[in-house]
Design brief:
By secondary structure, the protein is of the alpha/beta class. The chain has helices at about 5-15, 20-25, 45-50, 60-75, 85-95, 130-145, 160-165, 165-170, 185-190, 215-220, 235-245; strands at about 35, 40, 55, 80, 100, 105-110, 115-125, 145-150, 175-180, 200, 230. Helix 6 (about 130-145) runs parallel beside helix 11 (about 235-245).
Length: about 250
C-alpha cells in the first residue's frame, strides 16, 4: 500500500464512506504478506516512498509471477529489474497491465496515471550507445517513481561537443544521473558544468583493463568535480532511487 492509497482510505473512513472494519480488512496484509518462499513488504512504500522492487535474477518464473501478482493486487506500482526476455514474455502472458522493456531488461506496472512531481527534472545522461541498458533502467525507474525524466544519450567525452550542445538542458535539471563505462570520465565533466547533484553510474562496458566496470567505478570515486556521488556498477535502479529522494524531499 502506498501513501496515496492510505490517505484515500483514511479520508473515506473520515467521511463515513468506509467503516473501520472495512478499513481494517484492507489493511490486513500490512506490513507484509507471507507467500512461503517470499515475504512481500507491502509497508515499504509508506516508509521509503516506493514499493518493494523485484529482482528478476535468481527467481523461477512461477515465483516471479506470484510475487508480481500479489503486489499488483495490492494496487502498487510494480518494478521488476534484471528480467531476461523469456521471463518478460511469461510475465506479460500471465498478468495484464504489465509492460516489458527489452533493452534494460525491465518490466513494470504503472498503476494509474498520476502526473510526475518533484522539484524538477531528473536528467539521465549516457556516454555511449553501449551504456543504454543501464541508462534506460535508470530513466524508466525514475519515471515510475514519479519524476519528470529527460534523456541525453551518446554524449561521451570522445566527442565533447555533443555534450556542450545540450548544456542548457544540463543546467535546467534538478538532478542528473550520468552513466558511463570505459574510463568513466563523463560524470566528472558534467559535475564541472552544473551546480546540481550528479549521481554517477559506472557500467561494465569496456575493454580488458576496464575490469568489468571497476576502472570506471574507481575513476568516478576519484573525481575532482564537487557534488558527484557514485552508485555500484550497472546500478541504474539505485541511481533512480537516490535521484527520487533528492527530487522529492520529505514534507516538513
Amino acid at each position: 500500500m502506498e501513501r496515496r492509497q492510505l490517505a484515500e482510505l483514511l479520508a473515506a473512513v473520515q467521511r463515513g464512506d468506509c467503516s473501520i472494519d472495512q478499513a481494517l480488512a484492507r489493511l490486513r496484509a500490512m506490513p507484509f504478506e507471507d507467500l512461503g518462499f517470499a515475504r512481500l513488504d507491502h509497508h515499504r512504500a509508506l516508509r521509503n516512498g516506493f514499493p518493494e522492487v523485484i529482482l528478476g535474477e535468481g527467481k523461477s518464473p512461477e515465483q516471479l509471477i506470484a510475487i508480481a501478482e500479489r503486489m499488483a493486487a495490492a494496487g502498487s506500482r510494480v518494478l521488476v529489474t534484471r528480467l531476461a526476455p523469456e521471463g518478460g514474455e511469461r510475465l506479460l502472458a500471465a498478468l495484464p497491465g504489465f509492460e516489458y522493456h527489452a533493452t534494460p531488461r525491465l518490466a513494470l506496472r504503472r498503476a494509474g496515471s498520476a502526473p510526475p512531481t518533484g522539484r524538477g527534472t531528473v536528467l539521465v545522461v549516457s556516454a555511449g550507445t553501449a551504456d543504454l541498458p543501464v541508462a534506460e533502467e535508470a530513466a524508466l525507474s525514475a519515471e515510475l517513481m514519479g519524476n519528470r525524466v529527460e534523456r541525453v544519450y551518446d554524449v561521451g567525452v570522445a566527442g565533447l561537443h555533443r555534450l556542450l550542445e545540450r548544456r542548457e538542458q544540463l543546467w535546467a535539471a534538478a538532478v542528473l544521473i550520468v552513466v558511463a563505462g570505459m574510463e568513466g570520465a563523463l560524470p566528472s565533466v558534467v559535475g564541472g558544468l552544473v551546480d546540481r547533484p550528479v549521481i554517477a553510474v559506472p557500467t561494465s562496458v569496456g575493454y580488458g583493463t576496464s575490469l568489468g566496470g571497476l576502472a570506471a567505478l574507481l575513476g568516478m570515486l576519484n573525481t575532482c568535480a564537487a557534488g558527484v556521488v557514485v552508485v555500484n556498477i550497472d546500478n541504474g535502479f539505485g541511481a533512480a532511487a537516490a535521484a527520487t529522494r533528492i527530487n522529492h524531499p520529505p514534507p516538513a
